[in-house]
Design a protein that fits this description.
The protein has a domain at 24-70. Helices cover 42% and strands 2% of the residues. It has nine helices and two strands; from the N terminus they run H-H-H-H-H-H-H-H-H-E-E. The chain has helices spanning 24-58, 62-66, 77-82, 93-97, 106-111, 122-127, 135-141, 151-155, 164-169, and strands at 177-178, 192-193. Strands 1-2 form a two-stranded parallel ribbon.
């Protein structure tokens, strides 16, 4: 709310001629005129207007007035507000809140990240959380799957302590059988007598 300016003529004395031709009473009234007009302005205009402003300000908390202390006075508050970015449509307070921990240029950070791998969903990405070294290197070090051998057959290998082929080669080729008992020099061989 703008206050009314004082329009009292304060130049009435300087406007007199060097040798006034008016009576002393008229000269006295002319000299008092500016003071009387200023007094009327103060009592009848300025003070009532200021009282109305004070009533309006009484509803404003002092802390709110104190926040105006740092306002740039080279431009009006409205002018400064008009120069600011408008609200971005579709962006609510919670999304704006995500920016609170950002420490540098968001686009720069995004550009520095790996692109999404096509066909890999978040579940598959989760499998990578326990990987401790190069995946391809680990895969190359593994034995390839043997076609036609199931997990039960692979289980038969559990407990083998040395080369299976070497163990097979050291065994007797066939069990011999005959009709007579073994003779001397054939110790260590097993004969099955068939009748």
């Amino acid at each position: 709310m703008a206050l009314t300016k004082c329009n009292a003529n304060v130049n009435n004395i300087s406007a007199l001629p060097d040798e006034p031709t008016t009576t002393a009473t008229a000269l006295k009234a002319l000299m008092d005129k500016a003071g009387v007009e200023i007094k009327q302005y103060l009592n009848n205009v300025l003070i009532p207007e200021q009282d109305a402003v004070n009533i309006l300000l009484s509803d404003v908390v002092k802390a709110q007035i104190d926040t105006l202390a740092g306002v740039d006075t080279t431009n009006t508050i409205q002018g400064q507000l008009n120069a600011k970015q408008k609200v971005v449509s579709g962006v609510d307070d919670s999304k704006i809140g995500y920016l609170s921990a950002v420490t540098s240029d968001i686009q720069g950070q995004l550009n520095g990240k790996q692109d999404v791998v096509a066909g890999v969903d978040s579940t598959k990405i989760g499998y990578l959380s326990e990987v401790t070294s190069d995946i391809q290197g680990q895969l190359n070090a593994k034995q390839a799957v043997v076609a036609g051998v199931d997990s039960t057959e692979i289980g038969y290998l559990n407990g083998v302590t040395s080369s299976i082929q070497t163990q097979l080669n050291s065994k007797q080729a066939a069990i011999q059988h005959g009709t007579t008992l073994p003779s001397a020099g054939q110790a260590g061989r097993v004969f099955i007598l068939h009748k």
